[in-house]
Amino acid sequence: MGVGLSGIEAFDRFEQGKRIEWLPERRLRRYLVWHLHRARAEAIVSEDQLWPLSGQRLVVELSMLQC
User: DSSP letters along 13-53, please?
Assistant: First the structure.
């Protein structure tokens, strides 16, 4: 896991313990975007794929979340 993800996860685990039960929507989106960025980066097989990937803005849309 990347350093950024590990950092925000450490704060969430400190606050909530071993199992994270609740996240504000903004934090959930951040986790989702960063994990998608990581998955996209892991799929790169050649250097030519790097620049188009880094130039695209990743947008994540979630429908209404219910507890």
Answer: HHHH-SS-----HHHHHHHHHHHHHHHHHHT--SGGGHHHH
